Structure formats: structure tokens, C-alpha cells
């Protein structure tokens, strides 16, 4: 089976909504041209990475999933985009931090075994995982592009870490943090035109934002508000939808055409087709 619409989900770790709006001119140009729409949403709490990876991929809040902090090293006990898609016979891939391998494939992560993954029996069938926060975004995007060219996945997760890393080093209100977001925008301007032309529906979002204390976890607007851009012809662009972070999983399942997923889906985001 092939997906109804193949999907690429890009999670830019630690990218706050205002920084995204102010620094990412290519993404704004896509919106201005009518090819993408930007939404802002509040992340679930606590505003931490591993709990929100689980929220984005399963629709469950950290309280519901039990992944309430970053040191919960175990497989997810929820159904995820990866498990639902592979069970439906779709091809899955990820270029992502090793915590995704731990949540959906095998825990704990063993770099020698898991860094490069090719196993049709695993929920993430094809993976390039990394385990250092300064692993260059540029290389990560090329890892994703290689997975795409080699495997033509129905669903691919792309997860760069340098924006979050810059925030931990220099803080939210810093040129380092903003310039790292600008560099990410430049990388997107290189890859997105090709990925969209290949027929993918693309979602670009973040797990959480960043604060001026060089951390995140709480409820401040800058650590909680994150962007969501959607691009591709399956989306109803410029819609007045108000998607929640917990609905991104269901939205991806709908795009893929996975049946019986029982995940919450945001209203008004998809183009109605006859
Ligand atoms: Zn972080």
C-alpha cells in the first residue's frame, strides 16, 4: 500500500514561535505565495523535549503518556504515527535525535547498533540517528534527503537540534539563537522546494521554545508558543483553523490515509476533496 498523501514532519527542536516568525523569511515567503500557512500553538507541558516528541508522534500529553521528563528511557506505550503507519503497510523513516529511536524502536539506544537503522520489522524502518546536540543541521538535512532518495518513505520525520543547542548556549534573546533559526530557514529554502515537488505534504513545527535563562520546561510564552507551518496541496491554505499540538499526530494519520487511528484531528486544516 502507498499512503494517500506521503508526509514529511519536520520538528525544529527548541524553535519559539516569535523567533520563527521574525527570522524565517523563506517560510514567510511560502506563506505569502499561498503555498503554506503558519499557525502558532501552545506546546503541551512540561515544555521539554522527550515528553513532547511523544506528544507530537502519539497525540498524548506527557501526563497521559507517562513520559514526563527527559530521563524516561523506555519505549512508548502509545500507538504512534510510526506504529500505525508501519502496521498499515507504509514505509517509515527518520533522521532524528536518538531519543526517537528509544521511544519507537529500541531502548536504550546503542550507537553501534542503532545509529543507522534498516529493519522493516521496526516501527521506524529506516533511520539515521544522532546523539550529540551540535550534530550539524546541514548534515541532518542531508541525512533526511538521502533517506528520501533511497527509500521513498510514506512518512519521514526530520528533526534538527541546533536551534535548541544555540538557545541553551546563548538564551532566547540572543543573536546566536536567532541566527541559528535563520540558518535553518536557509536549509529549508534548499530542501523544501524539492520535497514538495516530489509530492510530499510538509509540516514544520517545534517541540517547545526557549527562555532567557537558557532553558525551557515552564509556561512562559517564549518557551511554550511554537510555530506550525503546513505546505502541500492537501492542505486548506490560509484557513482559520486552530490546531493543537496534540492533534498533529491525527492530522498526519489522516494525510497518510491510516484507518482507525482514533487520534484527535484538527478541524479545517485539510482541503475538502470530492
Ligand atoms: Zn532543549
Please describe what this structure looks like.
The protein is α/β, with parallel strands linked by helices and 274 residues long. 39% of the residues lie in helices and 15% in strands. It is built from 12 helices and 8 strands. It has helices spanning 17-23, 25-32, 49-58, 62-65, 81-87, 98-104, 111-114, 137-151, 162-170, 175-197, 221-224, 248-256, and strands at 7-11, 36-42, 92-97, 116-118, 126-130, 155-158, 201-205, 225-231. The protein has an 8-stranded mixed sheet, with helices on both faces. Helix 8 runs parallel beside helix 10 and helix 9 runs antiparallel to helix 10. The longest helix is centred in the last third of the chain and has 23 residues, at 175-197. The model has no long low-confidence stretch (mean pLDDT 97).
The radius of gyration is: 17 Å
The number of strands is 8
Helix content: 25-40%
Q: What is the string of SSEs from the N terminus onward?
A: EHHEHHHEHHEEHEHHEHEH
Largest sheet: 8 strands, mixed
Bound molecules: zinc ion
Structural class: alpha/beta
Distance from N terminus to C terminus (CA atoms, Å) equals: 22 Å
Amino acid at each position: 500500500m502507498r499512503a494517500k498523501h506521503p508526509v514529511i514532519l519536520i520538528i525544529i527542536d527548541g524553535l519559539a514561535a516569535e523567533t520563527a516568525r521574525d527570522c524565517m523569511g523563506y517560510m514567510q515567503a511560502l506563506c505569502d505565495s499561498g503555498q503554506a500557512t503558519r499557525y502558532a500553538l501552545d506546546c503541551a507541558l512540561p515544555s521539554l523535549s522527550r515528553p513532547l516528541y511523544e506528544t507530537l508522534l502519539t497525540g498524548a500529553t506527557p501526563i497521559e503518556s507517562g513520559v514526563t521528563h527527559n530521563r524516561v528511557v523506555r519505549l512508548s506505550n502509545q500507538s504512534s504515527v510510526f506504529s500505525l503507519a508501519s502496521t498499515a503497510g507504509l514505509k517509515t523513516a527518520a533522521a532524528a535525535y536518538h531519543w526517537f529511536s528509544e521511544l519507537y524502536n529500541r531502548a536504550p539506544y546503542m550507537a553501534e547498533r542503532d545509529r543507522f537503522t534498516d529493519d522493516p520489522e521496526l516501527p521506524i524502518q529506516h533511520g539515521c540517528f544522532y546523539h550529540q546536540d551540535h550534530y550539524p543541521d546541514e548534515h541532518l538535512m542531508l541525512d533526511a534527503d538521502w533517506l528520501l532518495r533511497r527509500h521513498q518513505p510514506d512518512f519521514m520525520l526530520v528533526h534538527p537540534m541546533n536551534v535548541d543547542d544555540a538557545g541553551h548556549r546563548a538564551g532566547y534573546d540572543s543573536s546566536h539563537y536567532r541566527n541559528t533559526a535563520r540558518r535553518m530557514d536557509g536549509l529549508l529554502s534548499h530542501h523544501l522546494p524539492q520535497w514538495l515537488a516530489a509530492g510530499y505534504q510538509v509540516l514544520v513545527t517545534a517541540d517547545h521554545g526557549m527562555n532567557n535563562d537558557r532553558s525551557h520546561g515552564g509556561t512562559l510564552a517564549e518557551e511554550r508558543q511554537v510555530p506550525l507551518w503546513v505546505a502541500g496541496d492537501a492542505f486548506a491554505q490560509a484557513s482559520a483553523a486552530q490546531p493543537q499540538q496534540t492533534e498533529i499526530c491525527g492530522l498526519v494519520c489522516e494525510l497518510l490515509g491510516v484507518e482507525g487511528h482514533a487520534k484527535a484531528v484538527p478541524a479545517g486544516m485539510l482541503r475538502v476533496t470530492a
